[in-house]
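PROTOCOL LOG
Step 1. Enter all chains and additional molecules of the complex.
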Amino acid sequence: MTSSDRGRELASRARDGDRRALARLLTEVEDRSLAGEAALRILYPEAGRAHLVGVTGAPGAGKSTLVAALVGEARKADRPAAVVAIDPSSPITGGAILGDRVRMQAYAGDRDVFIRSMASRGHAGGLATATVAAAAVLDAVGFPLVFIETVGTGQSEVEVAAIADTTVVVQAPEMGDEVQAIKAGLLEVADIVVVNKGDRPGAQRAAAQLRAMLTVGAQHDRAAAAAGRPTPKRPDVLLATAATGDGVPELLAALDRREASRRGADGGPGRDPTRLARARAQVDGILGERLLARLALTARAAPMATLYAAVAAHEIDPYTAADRALEGLLARGSGPDARP
Amino acid sequence: MTSSDRGRELASRARDGDRRALARLLTEVEDRSLAGEAALRILYPEAGRAHLVGVTGAPGAGKSTLVAALVGEARKADRPAAVVAIDPSSPITGGAILGDRVRMQAYAGDRDVFIRSMASRGHAGGLATATVAAAAVLDAVGFPLVFIETVGTGQSEVEVAAIADTTVVVQAPEMGDEVQAIKAGLLEVADIVVVNKGDRPGAQRAAAQLRAMLTVGAQHDRAAAAAGRPTPKRPDVLLATAATGDGVPELLAALDRREASRRGADGGPGRDPTRLARARAQVDGILGERLLARLALTARAAPMATLYAAVAAHEIDPYTAADRALEGLLARGSGPDARP
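Step 2. Run joint prediction.
Step 3. Record the structure below.
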């Protein structure tokens, strides 16, 4: 059986509800193997129906607990739900440290919940590409709700949150200075801000401060709009206590309203700006990978290694090295000239 | 005056000690402008002498205070020092939130200290490329010590730490679970681990635990080495209190020893593995940028937009879209075929 045949078989079994095949398929997709590619070519046209919800926030804000609570709430209405949890992980071993083993236990035996941990590092085509591909598989095999959980501190994690249909930023009431700075960046990708741990002292005040800040922002927006300047989106602010479930039904309802409104506003297939950005991330990620593979093939290893060594020795500058590699690539087969 | 002329003039003035020209030049380099490129082509061959020290760690570990203390220690011996501080920042405005304004104040008037904040997001050629380029400029204009300070939580930030000659991972004695997971990834890039806030309860114990963990690791390493398996590097563990300066002279001495040993072990220009990795990040970053620019030019905007829209509408899969774009690029000028 060829890799492609294997991918097609895994796709077919995953679509028929085989969860072990689905898990194996996600590994293939994440590894960007030929089998994964073959499966995605089949499944991708069947995706596009799920609501992709990004959930992000600083370490300790309670993202995992909130996602678990949202899944529980969806299950009360018998709605299937999947989770892609992106773990900060070792750059060398690439392993997901906070595995899905522990978190899976609450839903062991529930076939309509699927939780997947993904390493945040070591994705050839980029983390966004790998995540969107995994979400497309879960979408195609029939999960109407897919949560993408990321730690919102790094560039790539924020990019991943931004390619979801709806992005929820979770924050705890009390945060340090550095976390505030992270948050300022996060707020710009938020559709909904959840002040979690709503039973703690200061939670009401934190929510009120955020709302006040956003109201001032909204006033600026109106002035900017009147002057014809572009205005950023302003997120809703909700209070919740993920650990007790308080505020979680309201959050899921808010997510559903967002999705209904997105579908209503959708100007037709391929017009939704978030989905366009997601498609673009996919195509560009694969394209970048293909170009690098082609480069390695065309330029062969030796001349590139010589170029790197010449740059490391400061004999030539990196622009000159890149120009030579590019000439090699576009001349197809002649390889870069590696003389210093 | 052309952009290139401007870049050459800025390079020349920066080399002559003009700090305002240096600041402007770093902006050009960070923006990847033509002026920045022209300057870097001149300055790059003059770089390669500085010791690049990466300083990373979870939010709140005290990285900034430690870097400030190290700069102060270097100044006692009249050694010039530069800092590139990578700030977690807005993905939309791209602005550095924790600016260098506050931190510069302690060294206002000291011409031999230069502190530069850099946004962590929005770098076309990648954060690593932008950081290495900035460090090369500071190196070329005469700073023998360049600290690169990053928040060690995202993929790109860890990559940046890993391209320094020596990487210091800073940690506070008490850390949560999620931070522990981040740390496990960070430890693998560390040459030196500093347990900061050494005057707090638990600091001695945290350092002892780390040393014990690394000793067990070292025993495994010896077994692995005996069996011919590859072994990871094991970092040194130091205790310091950045706020009081305790342990800082010892840390700077340890850094100097590392650098002397690196130079001693260097198998000649272009042989040092860290410097090779750094050169490779530079060349690949610029190359990726050039390829994308070429793609935009060759494929023209319209067909790529049509491809993205077809993928967003799930009419074609992203692999097929990437294949068509690639054909367009390599056929030079014919553009990708955008039929769904």
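Step 4. Note key features.
Confidence is low (pLDDT under 50) at residues 90-101, 333-340 of chain B.
Chain B touches chain A through 88 residues (CB under 8 Å).
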